[in-house]
Amino acid sequence: MRKRLLCVLLAAALAASAGCSRYAAAKEFSLFAMDTLVDVTLYAGERGAVDREQAIMSGAVSSMEKALSVTHEDSDVFRINREAGRSGAAVSGETIEVLSSALELCELTGGALDITAYPAVKAWGFTTEEHRVPSPAELEALAAQIDYAAVELEGDTVTLPAGIEIDLGAVAKGYAGDWLARDARGNGITSALLNLGQSTIVAVGSKPDGSPWRIGVVDPARPENYFAVVELEDCAMGTSGGYQRYFEQDGEIYWHILDPDTAAPARSGLASVTVVSPSALTCDGLSTALFVMGLEEGAAFWRDHPELDFEAVFVTEEGEIFRTAGLEGRFSLAEGYTDREVTVLE
Ligand code: ADP
Ligand code: MG
C-alpha cells in the first residue's frame, strides 16, 4: 500500500507542474444522498486511511439521508413536517445539531435564509420538476406561511404550527461536507477534495505538494466556464446561483432560490454568490442568503459579521464582479477573464 501511495504522490508531483491540473488520486469514489452526488477524491493520507475512508463516508452519508431527507419517509425532517400542528416529533441529536445551525443562520440573516420556505419551493414545482408559476394570491398566502421563528425546538422535540414545513436542503450539503472533512482529517487523510453537488466544495489540507487547492468559480452567464480561481487550504467554498436550477415560462426565467418575503424567485440583481469559509455549512447557507439579500445588503452583512469568518464573491446580472477584501492573495481571474474589472469590497 505504502509503495502504491508513493507512486501516486510521485505522479501527483509531476502533474503539479501543469498548474491547476488534476492530481492522480489515491482513491476516488462517489456517494449519493439527499439528491446530491458527493464526489470524494482522496489524494494522500496515512497508511490504510485512504482505504478505510470510503466505507466510513458512505455509512455516514446514508445515515444523514435517513435523518435529513425531506422526501425520505420516516426521516426526522419528514416526521417533523408530518407532525406539524400536532405535538411535535422527537428527533436525533444530529438532526437537532443541523436544525440549530440552520436556525441560527436564518436569524442572523434576518430571514433571507428561511428553512420554512419549503411549501413555496414545492408550489413552484422545484421538488418534482413539474414546474408552474403560482398565482399572485397563492404566492401571498405562501409568503405568509414562511416563518423560521415558528419552529419550536425543545430538547430533542421539534414542533411546527399547522401549515409550516421545513427543509434543510439549503444547508445539508454544507453540514455533510463539514462532517466528511472532519472525519477524513481525524482519520489521517492529509489531502482531499470533497465535491458536493458541484456547488459546495471542501478542501482537506492542501495539494499533495503542499500548495493550496485552486478551485474554479463558475461564470453564471456561461456555466461551462470558470471566471475566477480561489485558493483553498483546509477551507470550503459554496456557490448559489440562478443558473443552477431554473425553468423558463413565457420568456421569463424562474430560479430555485426564493425570497422568503414574496415566496417568488429572489431578484436582487445578483446572478451568483460564492462564499469562502472554513465552515462548509456557512458557505452553503450564506451563499443562498446573500443571493436573496443582493449586493449592497450582502456586503453590509459581511462587514457586520466578522465572527462568521467568511469571504464572498458576488456576480451581478450585468456581469460585474465584486469580492471581499479578505480574499486578497487567494482570488484571481481565470484565463479568458483577465480583462474583467473586480471591485474589492472593504
Ligand atoms: P442547491 O442546494 O440547490 O445547490 P442552495 O444551496 O442555494 O442550492 O439552496 C437552495 C435550495 O434551498 C432550493 O433548492 C430550495 O429547496 C431551498 N431554498 C430556496 N430559497 C431558499 C431560502 N431563501 N431559504 C432557504 N432555503 C431556500
Ligand atoms: Mg445553499
Account of the 3D structure:
With 346 residues, the chain is of the alpha+beta class. It has a domain at 68-170: T-fold (Orthogonal Bundle). The chain has nine helices and 19 strands. It has helices at 2-16, 49-68, 76-82, 93-108, 118-123, 136-144, 169-186, 280-293, 295-304; strands spanning 27-33, 36-45, 89-90, 152-154, 157-159, 189-196, 200-205, 213-219, 222-232, 235-241, 246-249, 252-255, 258-259, 264-265, 270-277, 311-316, 321-324, 331-333, 342-345. It has a nine-stranded mixed beta sheet. A three-stranded antiparallel beta sheet has the order 3-5-4, covered by helices on one side. A hairpin with a 2-residue loop joins β8 and β9. α7 (169-186) runs antiparallel to α8 (280-293) and α8 (280-293) crosses α9. The radius of gyration is 20 Å and the shape is globular. Bound molecules: adenosine-5'-diphosphate and magnesium ion. The site of adenosine-5'-diphosphate (ADP) has 22 residues, from α7 and α8. Adenosine-5'-diphosphate binds next to α7 and α8.
Question: Which features characterize this protein?
Answer:
single chain; 346 residues; binds adenosine-5'-diphosphate; 3-stranded antiparallel beta sheet; binds magnesium ion; T-fold; alpha+beta; 19 strands; 33% helix; globular
Percent range for helical residues?
25-40%
β-strand percent reads 25-35%
Let me know the CATH homologous superfamily of one domain. ApbE-like superfamily
- Widest sheet, order of strands: 1-2-6-7-10-15-16-17-19
- Our Rg estimate from Cα atoms comes to 20 Å
Instruction: Please outline the major beta sheet.
Output: 9 strands, mixed
- Uncertain parts: 1-21
Give the helix tally.
Answer: 9
CATH class of one domain: Mainly Alpha
Which structural class fits the helix and strand makeup? alpha+beta
Task: Label the overall shape.
Answer: globular
> Which molecules are bound besides the chains?
adenosine-5'-diphosphate, magnesium ion
| N-to-C order of helices and strands | HEEHHEHHHEEHEEEEEEEEEEHHEEEE
Q: Return the CATH topology of one domain.
A: T-fold
Please state the average pLDDT score. 92
Under the CATH scheme, the architecture of one domain is Orthogonal Bundle
Distance between the termini: 49 Å
Number of E-type strands? 19
